[in-house]
Amino acid sequence: MRLRMQLSSRAGVFNYEASGTFQQHGAREGDMDRGIFTMLDNNSTRLDNFFNQTSQRLDATEGKIDVIDGRVDIPKHGVRLLINDTQILVEHSALSDQHSYFALDMNLELVIYGMDGS
User: What is the pTM of this model?
Assistant: First the structure.
């Protein structure tokens, strides 16, 4: 499985890609599904560096994306990512919703897009 992220803002477009495994946890905590993406390859662009580059507040198509200290919150879409060098803890209200801003697609590729609202 590939993790592919793209965050776009007025400051530019930032991309991150890595191979890994994703495990979705069946148990719910509140209304959030939970999963962990574990990277298999040692990508030269570490996740913390990727998110440090996008530490400003980004406009999204709906609501806002906040990128602060390794945490990505997209509250309008119920998404929270907790980042470290080897794993991403993913929480989302509907991980399998194909029409969600954040979704696991049919090929089990985790796709996170942030877009400039202008």
Answer: 0.41
